[in-house]
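Run log, item B.
One chain of 524 residues. Sequence copied directly from the ordering sheet:
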Amino acid sequence: MQHYRDFLAALSQYCCSTTAVLSQYYYSTIEVLSLKTRLSEATYRYDELPEHAFRYLVLHPGASNEPLVCTLRTSNVNNAEYEAISYVWGSEVQEHDIICDGTILKITSNLNEVLRQVRRAEGARNLWVDSICINQKDLKEKGHQVAMMGEIYRAATCVLICIGSAGSECAPGLKILAEAASRMIDKALYHTIYGMRIDPSTESHPLRDLESDSEPTFHHNGQDPGIDFDYRSAVERCLDIPRWNIFPFVEEEDVFLRGPEWNLMNTFGQNEWFDRGWVVREASLARKAVVIWGDTELLWDDLNRISLWTGRRAKKDLDMTQAVRIRCHFEAYRTRYRNFSSVFFQEVDWFEPSLLDYMGFARTLRLKDPRDRIYAFLDLGPKLVQGLAIVPNYTDTPLKVFQDFATNYILTTKDMNLLYHVMHDEATVETESMTWVPRWDSGPENMVHFVSSSAYSPLRSRTGQISKPTISANHVLRVQGLIFDTVCFTSNILTGSYSTSSNVPLTIGCSSLTKMFFAVWLQR
């Protein structure tokens, strides 16, 4: 017990700043509980962050049933080595404790579960957790740190996607499926590339010209190179540029697609994590991401590759509701890994989502603060974001944030696609002066923007010019355009798994132009 007495003696001198003490002494559960009793009246106080700095959390080791203990450190993002956590905040009720720098800090049930899940039995773990590392009560700090979150997630050695334990009995089976399917994709792509266009004399550039009519030949005298062969590295050497639409389609009767294990992907996609808006940026910017589902770890990359392959080649049915929930993730992954994704697409069909596209796709996702309908997606669609210079400000009302964003966006980009996302009901039309500003926090929850995306360019004049919008002093948006037809029909909102051929009467009441448009769209 001598170390305990020394610990308490040092504690009495350090008061609320006991970082050094916690790092020098080992202590039992009983001792920590005694400490918690003594500190029960204390409240953790955040130090002010220097400019361009951030905090990360050092989670001390412990068994699953032992109290959580951590230290907060301040650093520059580029000088720290840490993992970032992506999880569902859940209830805001803070009914659990973590000892942070010798002071009790209250945390939610979800975060308590996550930290226990990632805590090591031996050795500390450096983590970035937004709800602890950002002083949520300091709105100025919160705005600055939210602006840095893209940088924080990019710099993390790994993003830990913690989706809890619900349904985790499926996780081991999904891990086997994900690894097998990912290797199958690499192997099929390897044989497609090397079989079609091989140059055995050049290891780093094994592809010949795309128009070669010669008979396919394979490395290793036409034999499979073996179970230990690194297909991924061989394929990556070839994908220094896009290789459009070369991946083979899968036969419907392929035995690989018949197994019940494919239902595990649907179970995984139903997890609450996919309903949250913030996680899109957290996962898509990661250098490496690992999904922690119960006691099982899965590579986020493998799961995205499966989704891409099944959607573009295996043509497996996907419930529309689930497709909407994962669309942001799908678009972010294929855009970031353009060269790999190109093997599943025709070049003419390729488009890269804009910031507005992501914000539109995310209307169905949950965000507790309406202002985050904009702030949570600022690092996506960088081509149009550059120059906007948006700084998150949580002292502004949501409506002001929407209005400032719309004004800034129009004046900076001259992009009128913003108007695609305007939705009003009778109440908002009557009460708002700037009716051309999208209300990102309202509108049909199951709205899918198939047409209103950057995949479709605006019709231009013969000279290729587009009228530049202006905004008057009284906030009136002035644009010029040409009226060329009338909308004669709109369908009901699709709320489930629908087939456009059997449930949407495309021809009833439509003008010839509308018919032609949908006919072309369905063929894309």
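Observations after the first pass:
- The longest strand covers residues 68-76.
- Residues 2-156 form one domain.
Flagged for discussion on Thursday.
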